[in-house]
Amino acid sequence: MFVLFGIEKFLTAMDAATVINPIIEQRHRILAEMRSSLRTGQQRLADWKTGELAVSAVPGAGKSHSMAVAAAITIAREQLHQRRRLIVVTLTRSAAANIKSKIDRSLRELSLPPVGYSVSTIHSLAWSISNSYPDLAGIALQDRTVITPQPNHKLVRTTVERWLPKNADRYRHLLIGQGFDGEETERLRRQSALKSDLLPALTLVAVSEAKSSGLSPADLWEIADRDRDDYDLLGICAGLYGEYQTQMQELQYLDHDEMIAGALRVLNNDAARRWWQSQIHAVFEDEAQDSSPLQAQLLRILATDDSNTNFIRVGDPNQSINSSYTSADPTYFRKFCDDCDQIFSLARMDAAGRSSPEIFRAANFVARWGNKYLDNSETAENPGTVFWEQDIQAVGANDPQPNPIKIAAGVEIHRPQTIFEAIDQIGQRLIELFDREPDLSAAVLVRDHRQGRFVRDKLSEILQYQEGIKINLAGVSDRTSRIPGSMLQILQFIARPHSSDNLKKALDILLERKLIAAQDTNALSIAPERFLYPQVNDPPLVSVALKAQEYCRSVIGARSRIPHYQLIGYLASWLEYDDLELASADKLSEYVAKQTFGKDSIEEIILALQEIVQSDKFINIDEEADDLYTASGQVTIATMHKAKGLDWDVVFLPFLHEDIIPGSAWVPKSEQFLGDFNISEVARTKIRAVAHGQPVPSNEVAYARAQFLKKAEALRLLYVAMTRAKRLLWMSAEREAPFSWSNFDYQKSGVKLSSKYPCPAIPALEKFLRDQPIEGS
Fold it and tell me: Helix, strand, or coil here: 377?
């Protein structure tokens, strides 16, 4: 059980001679003022003295501020120093820098030097621990390249290539799948899908879920022996995981999960563990809802000294929005909260000053509605509630951060006829709002980047003559970071166009850039010669494939037309990069030119790009900071995921349709030959069940549970997006929208739209606001 610490009691217990010192006396007064400036829920952090404490903080509750104040109070009270310090761990480097600046500011108010603590991400902390005892970590850090592998990474491709000949029977079962009649073209299509897409994706899922749960390849093999489904899916995962680890050693790579595992190996040694624990007074963890089991285990060990564990975990289960594609799972932090609640060490920071009461009221309704909506779902057995039961409360009248005054009704729901009409309405509303208050901040939050580009282009047309309203498309660094990989794959295709793998990667890039219509790229790439240069007797290509063929032929010809040192610039134009992407491509071209000086060949350019991609050496032309997104007089367009941690006076949420939130089960046509489920999602759910101590579910139950969890996460994402608004929340569900945004070309004339159902939360919230209006709305 944690122990409450009263500042007043602490002061009266001080030695009288010490209190006489005016500097110490002033410090005590400032400590008392710091504590009294906090809200009730926040004061639980400041009053903490020892033990475990769970803090569930609603959006806008001021957790960063209260953590910084609690850290400063702890440093002052315990007289911490560099050899006995407080460790603060958060999710990202920007968040770490933010909390560090706040702690430094609080220490300056106390006339204390900025010592006795450190703030870091979990991975930089793990790096420090591993580097302190490299022999125990089993990692020669100076010789390793840190990577964040993607499906097309050399490590993943080599893993699949080496797994295939060793697992011929398992691969054959996958290839046969369902409904296979032996036809050669279909066999080649399935083979392409498995090698290029399905097995690389499965590798990453298996490695991430197993490694972050502390499972070795041997552990996964043991579990697979008890779960023999038609495909022996866990056996495939165990084999891929084992090959991946072997490749990691041979290629001298290091991924982020391996950093955590290396740090744990150090702490398994008694002497090393005691040394690290002697250096640490306590551990404060931020964004605990996004931790993996392995990360939480590492922090708990560091926070434990003899029989005492000084561990504070702060987070919000309702803002867990990464669990369907990472190893994070809200179940873990919820369990920690429940366990702490049993010993009266759960603090609820449920008062927030970020938004107007009307916006919080709407978000609270969606949370309560969401639990009922998915509880009644027939898609899966219910593995838990969608939302943690915690309403957001408005702050008191004398709070230093009072709730802002709403604009208009505070919450508006619209039903435009089309997505074009929706953007027109958003544009006109922005003109009205900025005309009255030029210093407003505003954002349009969407589900993915394709929607964001559509909003930017159409909104730019409406606002082009409005002085002072700037449009900023957030997340461009995410796109520019992929430029070296895209250039590498296109150049590999140019160098070897007869390779099925190279052709498929080139087609996938064209598809992602929306330069060609959506189509089965596996089917096109199984016979490159026939696709690129068909003979008279070959069956004719359909019109969408002819467009893809035209693009591919044009870029192949560039090898003979364009000087090699100009190829990257040419490809940037060929892929229709925007201004920022073009600037990053120019920077990349200059870097590659230096690396290949005197070696004028496409092969040398490919080698240089491979080295850049594998080592993550390329730094984007843009270094985006959070304050660039929230500037006044600006409209930021961002994805809902990107918006987490940010807020704006006005937030627009268009395109709220049922097929987007909460979404529906959908298996891509290219992998339907395996059955009515996605094998990566099934594997993730099976491995996660083991990590939770549950029986391994069947493929069908696992997929149904995965769909439940995806829908739950989508509803939490909506909740996060709603709580970004401070004064006005504008939501819309258009009656007509693209059937699929992935192949929607809004620049063509005669664009066809499809009828859409609204996100189920929209009519429910409409009825709630209509039946229970707020006085004065």
Answer: coil
